[in-house]
Amino acid sequence: IKKVMxxxxxxxxxxxxxxxxxxxxxxxxxxxxxxxxFSYAGVPVDFEDVEIDPNANDNVDLxxxxxxxxxxxxxxxxxxxxxxxxxxxxxxxxxxRNELDLYVNVLHCVSYPGVNSRHKNIDIVxxxxxxxxxxxxxxxxxxxxxxxxxxxxxxxxxERVARYAFEYAKRNGRKKVTTVHKANIMKLxxxxxxxxxxxxxxxxxxxxxxxxxxxNTCMQLVSNPHQFDIxxxxxxxxxxxxxxxxxxxxxxxxxxxKNFGDHYTIFEPGTRNTGTGIAGKNIANPIAMLNxxxxxxxxxxxxxxxxxxxxxINKTINQGVHTRDLGGQATSREVVDTIxxxxxxxxx
Length: 348
Ligand code: ADP
Ligand code: MG
Prior knowledge:
The protein is α/β, with parallel strands linked by helices. Helices cover 39% and strands 21% of the residues. It has helices spanning 27-41, 60-72, 92-99, 155-171, 189-201, 214-223, 235-249, 287-300, 303-318, 332-347, and strands at 16-21, 45-49, 74-77, 104-110, 123-129, 133-143, 146-152, 176-181, 208-213, 230-233, 256-260, 265-269.
């Protein structure tokens, strides 16, 4: 099966409308920066703002958000707060991905030369199954003091995500895919995921395929990350590995992630944090959300504006205008103003 990228729907006159889910914590302020930069750069995109209330007793707001994304094809998203610890209450974030069948999460982790980090020149793509595995959220207390949690691995979804990883490798001139798993312990579930990735790998003789246990992967990522090219993994291992690699590159404020299905796409900061503790203080790093917005522009085919903003972001980072998470002194506002200054210089 050839993977065809979802086709975003154009509006009259070449403008696109995109669903915007600000979420909680630092989400809303980061979205305001995106809107400001877009309007400053003259980006032909309109936003349809949709609030999701994590405390609502029904799914009206969630259904509305899903309808909006189905209509627009594309969304930019902040993290939605996850309500309480009640069993059976689906995280709104997970519900959105499942309902829209966004079966793959892609995180392209590339070092910024201007950011102090533990390792230089990292370039790793993490391809993560995004709709099942350990996130099935099927938990119950079978008898008092005994809780069971189900992990669901299906051959259909394992094949789709493996196919995506190898097609990505082929399209982007990548050389190696590493399947990350724990099949030595979870013999049936991770065993199936591993077996299917091996079968898919046979269709791509030019791409090296190996596999690694999740615990060793974490150690290898910290000590020798340059051995990795593409990492293919299940949902929870993907979340962990993504955070390890983001941490190696400079933390939660930098990288953006993409959630793909066959029809819809959601763009968001790579580590999916709410950032409640730093909200409203003018200290959050605006880069990850702006990078997500740039990825979205590229996806929509707005190449000129994508490069314009991307170059301005890179200049800002490389000249050392850094928020605290990167060891700097700059406020969120100063970072955004510097980016806009570079946009102005480039388009003068
Ligand atoms: P969660 O959403 O899981 O609660 P947090 O919001 O606690 O995660 O985020 C994890 C860490 O990353 C926190 O220390 C938070 O301050 C930091 N962080 C997340 N996003 C950003 C950002 N954009 N800029 C700076 N720090 C961030
Ligand atoms: Mg979190």
